[in-house]
Amino acid sequence: MFSIFLKGDQKIQVILEGLSFSDDFQKEDADVTYTITLDFDQALKGDIVTLNIDNELVKVKIPAGTVDGTKLKVKGKGKKTATGRGDLHLIVNVKPDPNFYIKDGKLYTDVEVPLKTALLGGSVDVKTPQGYVTIKIPKGTQTNTVFKIPNKGLKNDALYARAIVKIPQNLSKEQEEILSKAL
User: Most CB atoms within 10 A, among 81, 108, 111, 154?
Assistant: First the structure.
């Protein structure tokens, strides 16, 4: 209930029931949503991106290990309105990389293992985000055997290298005979 006073002692009382002044005014949406696309390396290592929001440059830190589809919220960096500033919502798309893929929150790579190395054991070089490392391949390694390489994956977690045994496609008659006798 509120009262309005007129001249003298005249008074009009008005009773308002079930009304809220906020119901009469539609709040301006100050939150903004942007979709950004990062290179795989940027998402893996983390980066700072600069966005232009309401003619203001806003820097946003992208955490290391960000994966495709990640949603980030930055409080107070949305549009400016009379009632304050909204939040910035970022949807992160990550470009695929020909050497790496993410599965169940872990970083994977495929590594070709020559047939001879798979049969007899040896070593192969594996590309990691930080460069190459050499891993030992035990005798009898099968395709899809996974090797864990510590501190070379997402956020210093392990990189998982999946062996793909390379089978020669063009064997000479002599090679066929040798293999036939040996196996």
Answer: 154
